[in-house]
Amino acid sequence: MKIFSTSEIKAWDEHTITEQEISSLDLMNRAADRLSDEIIKLHPEPELQFTVFCGTGNNGGDGLAIAKRLRDRFHVVRIVLLGEDSRRSEENQTQLEIIRGMQEVKILQFSSESDFPWVSDTEIIIDALLGNGCNRSPQG
Asked: Could you report the per-residue pLDDT of 57-111, keeping only the tens digit for each?
């Protein structure tokens, strides 16, 4: 398996956006479509429960887009937001606005250890916290 570096991933994203004349948001939605398809292939059981942990960058936006698609397929979805709304990327904020308009998606704001949600043994966790734009060590 080839593991791409941060610079390679950024270069591929930019290449795709330029060559296919799509926006970063469209690329994010395309990736969410493909990844949610793969998740469903791995876990075809109906009405699975998912918890998606989302940071403030585009990786968090990817998580929000995936959460929407899983909910569209009738799965139970809970989103745990980390970070302040004022720090969200433009694409992340757009995805969050879409999610907030959906019914039956529970959104939790995580601001301290006491806020950490209970996760059952049967839930599937999706980590969308740190992506290739992370420029410092994780904290807290």
From this structure: 999 999 999 999 999 988 899 999 998 889 999 999 999 999 998 888 899 998 8
Q: How far apart, in Å, are the Cα atoms of 83 and each of 28, 38, 40?
A: 20, 28, 28
Residue corresponding to tokens 């839930």: 123
**pTM of the predicted protein model:** 0.90
Sign of the four-CA dihedral 105, 71, 110, 61: negative
Residue 27 Cα distances to 13, 24, 73, 87, 97, angstroms: 8, 5, 21, 21, 18
28-56 pLDDT, tens digit each: 999 999 999 999 999 988 878 999 999 99
What is the gyration radius of the CA atoms in the chain, in angstroms?
15
Instruction: Evaluate whether 110 touches 79 at the Cβ level (below 8 Å).
Output: no
Longest CA span, the chain:
46
